[in-house]
Specification:
Elements (H helix, E strand, L loop, with lengths): L9 E5 L2 H11 L9 E4 L3 H11 L7 E7 L4 H12 L4 E2 L12 E3 L1 E2 L1 E7 L8 H6 L9 H9 L13 H11 L9 H5 L8 H14 L1
Parallel strand pairs: 1-2, 1-3, 3-7
Antiparallel strand pairs: 4-6, 5-7
Helix pairs in contact: 5-6
Length: 209
Amino acid sequence: MRRTGTQLARLLLVEGSSDERIVRHICKAYPGLPSFDIRACGGWSGLRVEIRQQLVVEGRMALGIMADANSDRFEKWGDIAQEVSKAPVLGSPIPSEPEHGGTVLDGAPKVGVWLMPDNQSSGELEDFVATLIPDDDPIWPLAREYIQAIPAEHKKFSDSHTVKAQVYAWTAALRSPGGLLSAATQHSQLSTMSVPARTLVDWIQRLFE
């Protein structure tokens, strides 16, 4: 994997810089992966525009799309499928829902879709990150308890963002707290060998090989 100023034949689009940081952190543990570029799109609306543009780039061999499922994975899948259907050549039909382990469609270019956290659940990047925190991490249960103990009248976040709040609380207690997940990746606090991480790597391998 590498990042350059030129457009590589294999490109992964992600919503934001935190997604990019996590993907890079995991992929460093798997040096045999094919070379590909990553582009953070500044959110879902920017990513959707990039899908349209990158599908028709001359020489594009494979395009990966990584987005949060949020509260309704079927709605997000439908939006992505609508854009992917505009690909110049699709060698396989677009399934009615995201596939377990990540979707990969043959075509020109080959197209892959990964919906955070696991292609099957509602949620977002932080839900995926929570699965990478080691079971023996001493801070994680304390961070979860802290967020759970906040009285309902003082909560400023929805129930669907509880795990996100817990992950933020966890990162705040790391040795060098800073931007979201920066300390976690810099100090290798996240497991790159867990089943969720290896499933993501397998999707990347299948897409960009």
